[in-house]
Amino acid sequence: VQARTGPDGALYIVDMYRYVIEHPRWIPPETLASLDVRAGHSLGRIFRVYSKSRPPRPIVRLDRLDAAGLVAALDSPNGPQRDLAQQMLLWNKERNGDAVRQPLTKLARTAERPQTRLQALCSLEGLGLLGDQDLLAGLVDAHPGIRRQAIRMAESRLDASPAVLTAALKLVDDADPQVQLQ
Question: What is the pLDDT of residues 127-156, one digit of tens each?
């Protein structure tokens, strides 16, 4: 059983049933001959769970948004929406490019939710738009997860950017052990 929040805020629970879940390639031929590897293929359920007092919100049609709309969609409390918006931004690197640099930079530095700041920073990296100033802001972010990710992103620039190296070295004594480890 797998459970996840959907783009409408409801909880989706997938209850799958299959007698054999391994790929037939990995089952010895003598065993495979005695199995019905498709047994249960029509069984299983998907439950959509939400509160009666708070029905699911409408699902945003991200495929109808331009680049600016996708950047705005990153600033959402809904993880699946943020993930899909980021994915769509990265799919269209050539088209989105510099048009999204400024709004992504603003989100990466000023968004209220750390998840939004992190995905904006990662989007800048994925689009090839991540600058040293973006990294420096990430390295001093209030949230340790963002500092940790900024260190990872900075690793390839430590030789070329003394400012990034200095900022990263300051995190050796960070209060968060995961930041120290990174």
Answer: 999 999 999 999 999 999 999 999 999 999
Cα distance between residue 143 and residue 111, in whole Å: 12
Indicate the pTM of the whole model.
0.79
What's the whole-number average pLDDT of the chain?
91
HEC sequence for the chain: CEEEECCCCCEEEEEECCCCCCCHHHCCHHHHCCCCCCCCCCCEEEEEECCCCCCCCCCCCHHHCCHHHHHHHHCCCCHHHHHHHHHHHHHCHHHHHHHHHHHHHHHHHHCCCHHHHHHHHHHHHHCCCCCHHHHHHHHCCCCHHHHHHHHHHHHHHCCCCHHHHHHHHHHHHCCCHHHHHC
